[in-house]
Amino acid sequence: MTINVNSLPQVELFGQGNVGCKGCGAAIAGRQAMKVLGERTIITIPASCMATLGGSNTRSAWRVPFYHTLFECAPAVSSGIRAALEIQGIKDVNVVSWGGDAGSADIGFQSLTGAAERQENIIHVLYDNEMYMNTGGQTGSQTPIYAITSNGSLGKKVRKKNMLAIMEAHGIDYVASANIAYPEDLMAKFQKAAAKKGFSYIHILAPCHRGWGIKPEETIEVARKATECGLWELFEVDEGKRTRTYEPKLIPVADYFKAQGRFKNLTDEQIAEFQKFVDDYYGKGE
Q: From the CB of residue 272, how many other CB atoms can be counted at a distance below 10 Å?
């Protein structure tokens, strides 16, 4: 499935008037996704940067119904919305829960795994900036090993939880990784997820310049390096069939790490460790 960018609607359903930081990866992801999801969409978002920048009080940057939920329950709220729509015989609405690291992989995982197990007809999005930026940049399960955070100045000691593998293990209709630096790939995956009748999960790399130690104008560039060096693979699992959707150039992983302040403490040995992982994974090792 491909996306013709020239055929996308001109109307902006998310983004105009949001209060996000310059170069916010989460806001970019929201704008790209809504180009495909369209006006017949209902969004639920737990406590997160995305909920805050999307609106507060009587103002909203969303042009679709938007519910700001508690931290732990966006997929549960989306499940209830879907049930209410079905009772009314309304079928042509995309119901999307859209959480950050904490609201998906950690605090919100119990409602996420429950909705996936039940095969609820919803899409869940994890926009991944790899730390808890809405509360100051703390370490979370999606923080990569060795990354420096506001409460981990020496770097994280354990590896990042593999949420894509966990969600794939649920046997749901559709699982995909995405990256805001590859909008056509991202939008094609949302288009495919929206056509499914069961549960879909899309995990988006969405850098935060403040937490990553980069300039606001470098958000897309650094996101692209994550995929081109092989550390953020773009793939999908469509009803059990796994397909890589983009073949990276496999630039040195050092190009990615050295562009970010959060990895300033990485040693040459640690960079070599990541390079070996990539080489072995893509069959380039000795």
A: 12
Residue 171, token pair as written in the block: 């046997």
Question: What's the pLDDT tens digit per position in 69-92?
Answer: 999 999 999 999 999 999 999 999
Query: Model-level pTM greater than 0.85?
Result: yes
Q: What is the DSSP letter of 92?
A: S
Judge whether 37 and 43 are in contact, CB under 8 Å: no
Scored b (16 or more CB within 10 A) or e, 152-188 reads: beebbeeebbebbebbbebebbbbbbbbbbbbebbbb
**Gap between the Cα atoms of 120 and 124, Å rounded:** 10
The whole-number pLDDT of residue 243 equals 98
Question: CA torsion angle for 33, 226, 116, 14 (degrees, to 10)?
Answer: -20
The tens digit of pLDDT for each residue in 138-177 reads: 999 999 999 999 999 999 999 999 999 999 999 999 999 9
Helix and strand numbers, DSSP H then E, in the chain: 11, 10
Per domain, the residue ranges of the chain are 10-281
Domain 10-281, CATH class in plain words:
alpha beta
> Cα angle vertex 196, ends 171, 237, to 5°?
45
